[in-house]
Write a structure and sequence with these properties.
The structure is a homodimer. Chain A is α/β, with parallel strands linked by helices. Chain A has a single domain, classed as Alpha/Beta hydrolase fold, catalytic domain (Rossmann fold), CATH 3.40.50. The model of chain A has no long low-confidence stretch (mean pLDDT 94). In chain A, helix 3 packs across helix 4 and helix 4 crosses helix 5. A nine-stranded mixed β-sheet of chain A has the order 1-2-3-5-4-6-7-8-9, with helices on both faces. Helix content of chain A is 41%, strand content 25%. The first copy, chain A, is globular. Chain A starts with a strand and ends with a helix. Chains A and B meet through helix 6, strand 9 and helix 7 of A and helix 6, strand 9 and helix 7 of B. Strand 9 of chain A pairs antiparallel with strand 9 of chain B. Chains A, B: Keywords: Hydrolase. Chains A, B: This is Alpha/beta hydrolase. Chains A, B: GO terms for molecular function: hydrolase activity. Chains A, B: It comes from Saccharothrix lopnurensis.
Amino acid sequence: MRFTSEQRLDDGVLERGFALGDIPGILWTPAAAPAPLILLGHPGGLRGMYPRLAARARHAAAEGFAAATLELPGAGDRPRSADAEQARADLRRALEAGGRVDDGIVDRLVLPLVEQAVPEWRAALDALLPLPGIGGPVGYAGGVMGIGIRLAVVEPRIAAALLFAGSFVPRALVEEARRITVPLLVLLQWDDEGNDRQQALDLFDAFGSTEKTLHANTGGHTGVPHFEGDDGNRFFARHLR
Amino acid sequence: MRFTSEQRLDDGVLERGFALGDIPGILWTPAAAPAPLILLGHPGGLRGMYPRLAARARHAAAEGFAAATLELPGAGDRPRSADAEQARADLRRALEAGGRVDDGIVDRLVLPLVEQAVPEWRAALDALLPLPGIGGPVGYAGGVMGIGIRLAVVEPRIAAALLFAGSFVPRALVEEARRITVPLLVLLQWDDEGNDRQQALDLFDAFGSTEKTLHANTGGHTGVPHFEGDDGNRFFARHLR
C-alpha cells in the first residue's frame, strides 16, 4: 500500500488517498491516536460518493475514530466485468418493468462482487491496521449489505457492524447472516421506495447476533435523520473501545 | 392536588407522593429548574412498579427532566371495576388457551381504561405544570400504548412520546394512531413472546407522525438494553428543550 495524496482538513482530520495495488482508497485519521478503525461501505464510485463518505468519516473522527474506504470492483476507474454489467442492465430492465426482481439477477450481480471485494477489504485491513495512529478492534459501516454480511462472518477483526438495510440481498447471504455473532445496528428507511421493507425485516430477523438493534425512521432512501450519525458513533463507542 | 410525602434521594432528586383527588401519584424533580416534564406510563400498580418507575425517573432527572406518574383506574388501592376484572379474566383464559385473542376482549379491557385514565392524566398535567421547577413542553414515556396513543392525540401539551410496543391495542386506537403528529420513538423487543411483532410493526406504520423512529432490540419483554434509556433521554432532549 502506498499513499497517493495527503491533506489536513479544517477540523484537523488527516485525509490520505492510497493505492492498495491498483485499488484506490481513502484513509481519514483524527488527531487523537490510537484510533479504532471503521470501514466505510458504499455502492461503488469513490469520486461521486466522496462528499457523503468524507462527511461520515469526519463525523466519526469527531468521536475519535479513524475511517477508511476502498473502491469496489468494477466501479470508478477499476476495470469493468462484462458479467456484472450485464447483470446490472438486467436489473435495471426488471425494475423498469416493475414487479419482483428475479433471484438469479441479484445473485449474478451481488455474489461475484462480494467474492472479489471481501478479500480486498481484508487486505486493506492488513495494510491499514499496522499504521501509526490506528489501533483496536474494527467496525464496518455500510449499505452494501452483501459485503458487510460476508465481512462480518469471515473477518474476526470486525467487532461490530452498522448496516444500512437494502434490497437485493442474495438468499445465500441471508443464510450467511445467521452465522454473524458480532453486535449489529441496522438502519432501515421505512418509506424507501427502492427497498422491500419486509425483506429488510426478515434479514434483521435472520442475523445470528445476540445483540442486534434495528433503527427504522420515516423517510426515503437518502433521508436518514442526522441524529442517526450520533447514534452510530455511540454504537461503535460501546463496542470498539 | 396535595403532596402526601417528600424525600430527597441520594442523587439530589426530590421525590414527592401526591394525591390528585383520590388518585395517588409520584413526582420526581431534579435540582436544576425549570425542568420539562415526562409522564411515565406503566401497566398499573404503583407499589409494585415503584422500583422500575423510580429508576426511569432518576435516569431522566440526570438529564434535567422532571417525571411524574399516576395510579391507573382499577389498580393499586383504587376501586376495581367488575367489567374490567371480567375482561382481564377472559384475556387470561384466552392466553392460556393459546391462539389469537378476540378483539372484543381487548376492547372491553383497554377502551374503558383509556376513557377513564386519559382525563385523569390531563388533570394531573393541569396540577403539575404550574408548580415551581417545572416548565416547557411535556413528554410521555410508557408501555400502555392505548393511553399513550389517546394522550398524544388529544393533549396538545404532549410534544413527543416514547412508546413501548405491546400487543392488545384495540383497533379503534390503531385508527386514532393515524392522527398522531408529534415525534415518536417506539421501542420493540424483537423476541417478546407476549407481543405480536407484526401487530407492533403495523402500529408503527400507522402512526401519522412525520418524525417517527422504531428501535427494535433482541430480547424479551423486560430485556430492553440499558443504552435505550440514554437514547430515550436524547430523544426527549431533542424535542422538549
